[in-house]
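In this supplementary section we document a worked example of the pipeline. Step one takes a protein sequence of length 319 as its only input; no multiple sequence alignment statistics are reported here. Step two produces a three-dimensional model, which step three serialises into structure tokens for compact storage. The input and output of this example are shown verbatim.
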Amino acid sequence: MHRIASIPGQGNPDEFELIEQPSAPVLFLTSASTDILTLSETIKDPRNQKWKDLIRALSLNNLCHPAQIDHYISTTAINSKIIVIRLLGGRSHWSYGLEQFITWGLYNSKRKLIVVSGTEENEIELSEIGSVPIHITKAISHLLRNGGRRNFDKFLEIIDQLLNNRNVDIPNKSYQTNEQIINWNWEVGIGEKVLVVFYKSLLNSNDIEYPSMIVKKIKEHKMHPRPIFLNNLRDQSIQESLIKICISEDIEAIITTTSFSSTSANSQSFKKLIWDKLNIPVFQFLCSSSSQDEWESSSLGLSPIDLSLQIVTPELDGR
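The serialised model returned by step three reads:
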């Protein structure tokens, strides 16, 4: 599809392609492509076959232009009963889309809008937008943030209860808490050690082609990769664990593929960041949410959402 120019003055802002999907009772719109992969794998389970025509998923990167959003709502979403939006970033990252889907929900009292945050920092801001009780929204948010098929099974159970107007049963432990940091395929080898940081959602969805490719390239350059998977870099305990790994493994450089900033908005000190404590080279890899074919056929570079999440926001901590 054609994308809006990420850089002012490049491309034609009126050049875009309208997006349509077959209508379904439930729509799942997400900033994270790994969500779609995990949902697809979850539905393949024989126990979840009924969801095959009940739910559709779409990357929010396909709904950048206001006209695309308006058309999608007036076609695909017109008969939907539940729409779940999972947004990486705050309300301002997709403000027009949120406004229009709020309006979609107001047209019919039977419609349910659920807006969940991909990060803990924006959870309160986004949870209040939807039309279902906040405790249900937060439960869904935690399930999707932890990822993996077990959590997506529970996510579908909650959506099924909402779809059929049944009481939503959320157990005390409604989501599986995994290890904070997972060391992935560490091998004994020689050469300078490089720590490579990935989001755990890739591992949970078995989307490991990208991590495998980076690890392979590092080895080809006679270096020794130390790949790890984690949820985020804002958590203080994760930062402390990361520092211990770097010291114990004698890490000489870090490659991080995570987006956002590693500091909280209300951080009291920007002088003692994890990167300053480590005092080793840090390389920020940018990951386009476009497909490889779209990337190779376009001259516009990163989409506006990618620019915001992966370049503008990380500038807060100098990456």
